[in-house]
Amino acid sequence: MWPSLRNWKVFQGSIVGRVFGHPNQKKFPDGKRITTSMINTAHTMSSGDLVVMTVSGSRYRLDQNTSEYVGFVLKLWGSGEKVK
């Protein structure tokens, strides 16, 4: 499974948040604040989780318990468009 981002916000096409479950725990220990590269695509999993892929190929599962979640999802799919 992919690492998750908690307490995240969209910032200039990237996501800033705290990463958990990253496979490289030395470089990205749980709770470390990171900024992803630009978001390339996003999709929902059968579980309902939203997963984003960055232009560098990294994937992150976004925590739904953030005020940004609903706005981000509506921006992505409310108009029927995907992330560009």
Structure in words:
This protein has one domain. Helices cover about 15% and strands about 40% of the residues. It contains 1 helix and 6 strands; from the N terminus they run E-E-E-E-E-E-H. The protein has a 6-stranded mixed β-sheet with strand order 3-2-1-6-5-4, covered by helices on one side. It is globular, with a radius of gyration of 12 Å.
Give the structural class: mainly beta
Helix content: 10-25%
- From the alpha carbons, calculate the radius of gyration and give it in angstroms: 12 Å
Side by side, the strands of the main sheet go: 3-2-1-6-5-4
| Mean pLDDT metric | 84
Provide a brief overview of the structure.
The protein has 84 residues and is mainly beta.
Could you list some keywords that capture this structure?
about 80 residues, mainly beta, six-stranded mixed sheet, 1 helix, 6 strands, about 40% strand, disordered C terminus
